[in-house]
Specification:
By secondary structure, the chain is α/β, with parallel strands linked by helices. The chain contains 28 helices and ten strands.
Amino acid sequence: MSTAATKVLEPVKFGTFGGVFVPNVLTILGVIMFMRTGWVVGQAGLKDALIILLVANAIRLLTSLSLSSISTNIRVKGGGAYYLISRNLGLEIGGSVGIPLFLVQAVSVAFYIIGLAESLEFLFPGLPTRLATIVTLAAIFGIAWGGASIAVKAQYFILGALGVGLISFFFGWSPVPHWSANFEPGYTDGVVFGGVFAIFFPAVTGIMSGVSMSGDLKDPSKSVPKGTILAVVVSFVIYAAQMIWLSLHADRGEWVTNNVVMERISLVGPLIFVGLWAATLSSALASLLAAPRTLQALAQDKVMPIGLAKGYGPGNEPRLALIFSTVLAGVCLMAGKLDVIAPVISMFFLTTYGTVNLVAGLSALASNPSYRPTFRVHWLPCLVGAAGCLFAMFLLNALATVAAVACIVGLYSLLKGRQYQTAWGDERSGIWFALARFGLLQLAASRQHVRNWRSVILVLVGNPTNRLALVELANRIEARRGLLFLSQIVTGDWQKMLPRQAALQRQLQEFIRESRLSAVGKTVMADTFEHGVSTLLQVAGVGALEPNTVLMGWSEDALRQKEFIGSVRRILELERNLLIFSEAEVPNYQLEPVIDVWWRSRANGGFMLTLAHLWQQGVVGRPYRLRVRRIVETKAGHAETVAAMKELVRATRFEAKIDVVVDNGAPFEVIARESERSALVFVGVALEFPRAEENPLAALKPWVGALQGELVLAKRWQDLHAHETSHD
């Protein structure tokens, strides 16, 4: 008994013909075919009309190939194109395209019903068309409420009626004389090729109907490619034959003025209306089946309100989403006209098509080991399809294209801010890996010149929440032009520290993400701090992206430890630039908005000037003046030194004031006095280790505390060339 009950409750699943081919064909062969193709041929002539058909169909065919490829790589569930995009490019991109896709599917329902109303108005001029559209929408809603099973069965009867109408049309015979005049275009005032293309393009947008039913298919990975491509081929042949037949049997004036010219040509005229009504009803029904399922999938992923995700019955029918979609379609019925709605539909379907092509192309290029579609397509036609969609969008309306892209970017930013945590992996990491691999190999093969120097900084930050000033300095001198390696060293017994290492790494990555730093986190375990520094310098980075500079904090405790001095020695032995940072004693707003660079030598001075300039670029709001300062012992060399310094700064192309201080006192004491209230001070130091036990930083300790602003002690590795004055 329980087994029988289980069988009864199993949802009905559909095959390739009923689940994909029929809904696709019935949506493609819709209102445009019966009520606008004649107008298209009349305006564009047979030649341009066939060009429009070829261009539109090329985009559709390439999109079908892309759709088939990505749908055979993953297990396709409900949501159609949205599901495929979100599972390949992430929830944010999927949602930013999926929301407009749902809206255009709902608007399409109104579009097809309005087409039906126009045909009824032709037959019954006094008929209240608005009432007719509402009644039609209610009837379609009733069929859709019964579930996908009833809707698919109804589509077979509709397909039969559509076939009868087309047979009647092609058996009609009333050729016009001089039909060759219909070959060339004859655009009326205000009508151009792009406008005609925009009106016609909804005729090729039906390929998403089948994939939108993916959750109701027996085998989506097989049915979607077969049914979609077959529908594309069959519908292309029918449209091409229709355009040729129209050009033989009517003149230009009739095409432009008579929306149902097919009725006059047809062997049995009324059968055209049967086919037209069947086509519009089927297209509206297919759209009303697709829109709620897209909305349900969006709600299940919490992109839309979660209440809309609720399903009913064994088929998980999205009835709440169906009500919402129907109401939206009803609003459009009150406001829209056929030729007004058509370009809107074209624009957002092209956006969806372009994204599907982009997904397939990038997935093929990234070549993740997990990307193994059974229907394999090369990346080139996919990306050509994406470019074709963008071209077609600009052909339709450049301003509307910008608006559509802005809408998607806005939705993406909104969804990105929600920071979704998804349970599935997508292609983005594979795409970034492929790009990073390509870039690293090209960077390694390129000529490394001092002109292209970038700050790649290893920051010995420990717990970053306790060293925010150090992180801020690193972030400013990186200035989103280089790269930071935020690192912490865990010392002690390996077995005891091992459980902590992974947790500390996660915390470091979380800090980087929340702080929006251009940084990579690295936590290493070592027996001693000096050993950890050596390890980091040898393993951090890849190729040309290895750290060239080390930034560490000034610490009174550290100065009493041999390991701090040993670490400084090791940094210089491994030929890295060294920056030692001392935090400000008072808030910046209490200091002078000045950056002082104390010039020591061409290498160190130019290095510090570059870092000061980068820091200056990262400041928002309060402007900071840059001063390049130097000490001379007597007035005799003052003028000559000023001239030389001006020439050096001019060669570096930085905006800075020159200040030469005459004083024969101890240099560090002069610096402490002159820069006491400066917000940031750069001082170049010479660190020599004549004996292993000596501390070269000990002499700096007394005057460091005399500065109230931030201090950076800089040591540029002597074997590196000064990059800032190089022009060759």
